[in-house]
């Protein structure tokens, strides 16, 4: 079987793998990306940069850049601390700009976290929200009289629960439960979103909401306003009803993650990335000339990729970048050492809700300042391998509320290193004989 050759192989198609492919594509690096669906599919669509620091105090971060500066001082081995603030800014700007141009626009305030309502009625600090959620940020901030809508048969989302949880902070909320146009029985976000691509369903939905609007100044609905260009659906409903309509994230799996995934999957090939989604790297070995040889497997065919360098963005336990059994935690593909508690009984605190988080959540791959994973001797395991995203050690993205930001920023750092490896390789004289 003939091997496919490339300069850069990206393993993973979560936020870190997608962002790495984007950065590589913009620099015209000859890249192959492989990955089975990652956590991005389940994401709420919010782009978190740093929402909580320090986590022991549970303090909400107002200015994420100042928060990262503080974090880097107090936790110098955190992956964010390996990057200058300006680089993290560039990485975030690049991804937000890409999404804006690709038809999935985002809203943010330069140096201030936004506050967004979650599907359970709590409020979460986040860096950027899909444009369809922007009016919700403003409505909460200014405490507008707002109507929260939910639907018969749509489980895991209750307008009443959101209203009750927010009662003190946002007294001007009212609720309305209505049938969803064009569908009956149990409702699922993806089907609802597809149903709203039909004009007749949008018209009916707008009419039902308008009937229950009362004097409200805005309407919040679960995030089901279409799979593609949801901002146009929100704008049309807003025009018909006469007030702003905004989305609130739903419980996973929703369509917000799907929108992100589709946007990357559709655009990256146009940038020259050879994408093989739903394919798994089953093994890798290093060749005598230093390149990596990856074997890919799916049920239909097998493929081989030979790459000058690689970015490992294979995630944690969910993505299967890390696996764990009774003897410890392992990195699945390269067999890299994993920083982890010394014994299994130290993985978790006795107190489930311990504010400092469980030690297992900070386990991961240790990298140097160029994002090269370290081997057992503390030196880079391979000069041409970098790692990015949630697989990295010394971070707890769930508690720190920094999932996408960490994935994007570290992907930028990892790709920068890969670019310098490719440039150095091109300068080398060809091997004769
Ligand atoms: C329910 C949920 C909600 C979230 N909400 C938010 C949010 O509101 N805001 C936010 O900023 N972030 C959110 N996140 C986090 C975010 O989506 C990412 O999980 C996080 O940023 C980590 O991304 P990652 O790319 O490092 O890992 P993952 O997303 O886990 O991706 C790892 C990828 O590697 C692939 N892979 C692993 N091994 C192999 C192999 N051998 N061969 C090929 N492919 C392989 C996996 O299939 C997967 O594609 C949420 C996550 C979840 C689960």
List strands and helices in order, with pairings.
Blueprint: E1 4-13, H1 15-26, E2 31-37, H2 64-74, H3 85-101, E3 106-108, E4 114-117, E5 123-126, E6 128-130, H4 134-141, E7 146-151, H5 159-165, E8 173-178, H6 189-195, H7 199-211, E9 218-222, H8 230-241, E10 244-248, H9 256-267, E11 274-277, E12 280-286, E13 292-297, E14 302-312, E15 322-325, E16 328-331, E17 385-387, H10 397-400, H11 403-427
Parallel strand pairs: 1-2, 1-14, 2-11, 7-8, 7-9, 9-10, 14-17
Antiparallel strand pairs: 3-6, 4-5, 12-13, 13-14, 15-16
This protein binds flavin-adenine dinucleotide.
Walk me through what this model shows:
This protein is of the alpha/beta class and 433 residues long. It has 2 domains: 4-100 and 258-427, FAD/NAD(P)-binding domain; 119-248, Rossmann fold (3-Layer(aba) Sandwich), CATH 3.40.50.1860. 30% of the residues lie in helices and 21% in strands. The chain has helices at 15-26, 64-74, 85-101, 134-141, 159-165, 189-195, 199-211, 230-241, 256-267, 397-400, 403-427, and strands spanning 4-13, 31-37, 106-108, 114-117, 123-126, 128-130, 146-151, 173-178, 218-222, 244-248, 274-277, 280-286, 292-297, 302-312, 322-325, 328-331, 385-387. Strands 1, 2, 11, 12, 13, 14 and 17 form a 7-stranded mixed β-sheet that branches. α7 packs across α8. The chain starts with a strand and ends in a 6-residue tail after the last helix. Bound molecules: flavin-adenine dinucleotide. Flavin-adenine dinucleotide (FAD) binds next to β1, α1, β2, β12 and α11.
């Amino acid at each position: 079987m003939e091997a496919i050759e490339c300069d850069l192989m990206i393993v993973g198609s979560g936020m870190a793998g997608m962002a790495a492919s984007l950065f590589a594509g913009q620099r015209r690096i000859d890249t192959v990306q492989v990955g089975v669906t990652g956590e991005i599919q389940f994401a709420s669509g919010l782009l978190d940069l740093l929402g909580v620091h320090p986590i022991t105090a549970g303090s909400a971060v107002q200015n994420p850049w100042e928060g990262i500066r503080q974090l880097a001082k107090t936790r110098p081995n955190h992956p964010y601390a390996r990057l200058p603030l300006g680089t993290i800014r560039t990485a975030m700007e690049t991804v937000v700009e890409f999404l804006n141009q690709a038809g999935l626009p985002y809203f943010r305030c330069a140096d201030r976290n936004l506050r967004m309502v979650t599907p359970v009625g709590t409020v979460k600090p986040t860096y950027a929200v899909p444009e369809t959620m922007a009016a919700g940020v403003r409505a909460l901030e200014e405490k507008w009289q707002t109507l929260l809508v939910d639907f018969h048969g749509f489980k895991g989302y209750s307008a009443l629960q959101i209203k009750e949880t927010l009662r003190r902070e946002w007294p001007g909320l009212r609720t309305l439960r209505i049938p969803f146009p064009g569908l009956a029985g149990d409702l699922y976000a993806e089907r609802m979103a597809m149903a709203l691509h039909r004009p007749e369903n949008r018209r009916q939905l707008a009419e039902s909401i308008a009937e229950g609007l009362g004097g409200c100044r805005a309407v919040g609905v679960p995030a089901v306003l279409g799979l593609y260009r949801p901002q146009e659906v929100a704008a049309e409903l807003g025009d018909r009803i006469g007030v702003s309509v905004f989305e609130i994230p739903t419980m996973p799996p929703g369509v917000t993650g799907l929108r992100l995934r589709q946007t990357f999957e559709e655009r990256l090939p146009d940038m020259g990335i050879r994408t093989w989604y739903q394919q798994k790297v089953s093994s890798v070995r290093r060749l005598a000339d230093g390149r990596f040889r990856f074997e890919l497997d799916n049920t239909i065919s097998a493929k081989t990729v030979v790459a000058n360098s690689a970015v490992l963005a294979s995630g944690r336990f969910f993505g299967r970048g890390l696996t764990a059994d009774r003897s410890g935690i392992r990195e699945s593909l390269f067999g890299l050492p994993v920083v982890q508690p010394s014994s299994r009984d130290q993985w978790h605190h006795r107190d489930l809700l311990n504010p400092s988080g469980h030690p297992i959540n900070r386990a991961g791959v240790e990298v140097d300042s160029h994002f090269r994973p370290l081997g057992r001797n503390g030196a880079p395991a391979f000069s041409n391998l970098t790692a990015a995203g949630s697989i990295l050690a010394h971070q707890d993205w769930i508690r720190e509320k920094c999932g996408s930001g960490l994935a994007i920023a570290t992907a930028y750092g990892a790709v920068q290193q890969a670019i310098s490896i490719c440039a150095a390789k091109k300068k080398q004289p060809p091997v004769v004989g």
